[in-house]
Amino acid sequence: MSNSEEIISAAKQGFEAAFSEKSFYNRQTQDISHIEAILGILPVKSGMRILDLGTGSGYLIFALAKKYPEASFVGLDIVENALMHNRQRAAQEGLDNISFVSYDGSTIPFESRSFDMVVTRYALHHFPDINSSLSEVSRILSDKGCFFISDPAPNEGDENGFADEYMQVKPDGHIKFRSLDEWKSLCGNCGFQLADSFVSSIRFPRKYEKIYETIMKRHPKGTVSSYGIEVTDGEIFITEQVNNMLFCREI
């Protein structure tokens, strides 16, 4: 098994466990104001085919499918348990413009130029080979396709990767948070240009473990304090800014 395969396998196991604690997982990912802001930036049109990469619990794709009943949506993820629940929910809510597909975390199982848009929220920091993944996104997008990324970013001044080390305590395959400039460079290599963006934030709750204190001591106090870390009632919280970026082949 390659290193990337090991990371994907670890991420799958970690998220299977996270989904089994649904209330805790939802506290990390659900944010109505964030979803509304995303819906406001996406140039969705009738008849479009849109892929949600790393769909998880389907929090974004369900909102999209309800708002745009004349577009079609596919949620892609490595976690079978989450996809099963998503399919059940779609059936219960009568959403016939949405489907869910599993994959290996590497090769997107669709033909080239088969989607008009790809969206992804809080997922890409788990992808072990980001260049390969972005190349796959580019492959499946139409010539005028757009790619929306929402992903946490390191704070300015976090030069030694404190946020990444902190997030890697949880065995869910966290790789790296990236800055806006890093995303512009990576996506630019695949022919995408930044068309629009906004910044939001996310407050991650975690069950407290002593190792978090050890990690914080290894990094400058100013860097650590910039993340607004708080310990309360057996939990530890970190607040991170989120880059929300719409990339398109043509602007």
Can you walk through the features of this model?
This protein is α/β, with parallel strands linked by helices and 251 residues long. It has one domain: 3-Layer(aba) Sandwich (Rossmann fold), CATH 3.40.50.150. The protein has helices at 3-20, 22-29, 32-41, 59-67, 80-92, 130-140, 162-167, 180-188, 210-217, 221-225, and strands at 49-53, 72-77, 98-102, 115-121, 141-152, 193-207, 230-232, 235-248. β1 (49-53), α4 and β2 form a beta-alpha-beta unit. It is globular and about 50 Å long. It starts with a helix and ends with a strand.
Q: What features would you highlight for this structure?
A:
251 residues, alpha/beta, Rossmann fold
Element-level helix/strand string? HHHEHEHEEHEHHEHHEE
Strand content: 25-35%
Provide the number of structural domains: 1
| N-end to C-end Cα span | 41 Å
Helix segment tally: 10
CATH superfamily membership, which one?
Answer: Vaccinia Virus protein VP39
Unreliable stretches, pLDDT < 50, 5 or more residues? none
Question: How can the largest sheet be summarized?
Answer: 8 strands, mixed
SS-derived structural category = alpha/beta
Radius of gyration: 18 Å
Gross CATH architecture: 3-Layer(aba) Sandwich
- CATH topology value: Rossmann fold
Task: Please give the share of residues in helix.
Answer: 25-40%
Q: What is the arithmetic mean of pLDDT?
A: 92
